[in-house]
Design a protein that fits this description.
The protein is built from 13 helices and 14 strands. The protein is of the alpha/beta class and 309 residues long.
Length: 309
């Protein structure tokens, strides 16, 4: 049973979020450091979905992530439930935009030591946590790479989001600014490596499942994995579809969906109510218009499950 203090800290985190209080609010960092750093019962290692996860409560850039994982013990429940039903022991899984490794760890736990997980995260701090999380679980069949998967091998700018460690974007800053919703933004970028999945896995054809959360670079990633998709008729993909950010990247969300449906002959299913649903209830979307109109708001993103019938 959760302690009274634990319940209080959870409620405080939720209430402060509703009020718009975050690490940029004056005095908030010191308050979080005191309460979550000294009283939070999980300290720096928690267990989520069968794996250990290292999160530093005193790191001001990671506090929101820490609260989210430690409070709920699950992230995107419907997608997680479907992921667990889809990925099998011995599978090969690719995680694009791994952040600190939630889906990487979930995949590793599911595929076991007869499987393989390739994980990509371009932002250095997120990547450091990803590497640590893989190491503390002794998942030696997971390979993590500090790179962005895109449509070409080379270098690009990664724009670092100041309000959410999950919203860093490659190539352009407009996506961060357009989704800020009044939150503080600062134009800051670092140089990173980019790779195509086709070239990176040139000698490793088999991929059973792929998760893509790349903040507007969906079309770029798709263009760089044409061979992998064609060589794996049974591949299943979990895609965070973010039309607003795709447009800011200079690509067309409608063309992205058209390629999935028509060029690659996939069926598309929406995963609804990801943060509230108690059961996974997939809804098949049969056309570009159905996919585009499924969102409640124009700026919304949705998680899609993609497979061949």
């Amino acid at each position: 049973m959760k302690s009274i203090l634990f319940r209080f800290l959870e409620k405080m985190a939720d209430f402060s979020g509703r009020l718009g209080i975050n690490r940029n609010t004056p005095g908030a960092v010191k308050l979080y450091e005191f309460l979550f750093g000294y009283f939070w019962p999980y300290k720096n290692v928690i267990e989520i979905q069968g794996s250990k996860m290292c999160v530093n409560a005193k790191d001001p850039n990671m506090q929101e992530t820490f609260e989210r994982y430690a409070s709920n013990k699950i992230h995107e429940k419907s997608t997680t439930d479907l992921f667990k039903k889809t990925v099998r022991k011995g599978d090969t899984v690719v995680d694009l935009g791994a952040n600190i490794g939630y889906f990487t760890l979930l995949a590793a736990n599911l595929v076991g030591n007869t499987g393989k997980v390739y994980s990509f995260e371009p932002e250095p701090k997120n990547f450091s946590y990803l590497k640590k999380n893989v190491e503390i679980n002794n998942y030696d069949y997971v390979e993590a790479f500090n790179k962005a998967v895109s449509n070409k091998n080379g270098k690009t700018s990664l724009f670092v989001c100041s309000y959410d460690t999950g919203h860093h974007t490659i190539n352009q800053y407009n996506g961060i600014e357009s989704y800020s919703r009044g939150r503080h933004t600062e134009k800051k970028s670092i140089e990173i490596d980019t790779v195509t999945l086709d070239s990176f896995l040139a000698n490793k054809t088999r991929v059973d499942a792929l998760k893509m959360d790349v903040e507007g670079a969906e079309m770029l990633a798709l263009k760089g994995m044409d061979r992998i998709i064609k060589a794996n008729p049974n591949i299943k993909m979990f895609i965070e579809f973010f039309p607003l950010l795709i447009e800011k990247m200079g690509d067309s969300p409608r063309e992205f969906i058209r390629k999935i449906l028509e060029d690659y002959k996939f069926s598309i299913f929406a995963i609804p109510d990801d943060y509230n649903a108690s059961n996974v209830q997939l809804k098949k979307l049969n056309s570009i218009d159905e996919v585009m109109s499924f969102r409640k708001k124009e700026e919304d993103h949705i998680n899609l499950f993609v497979k061949r019938s």
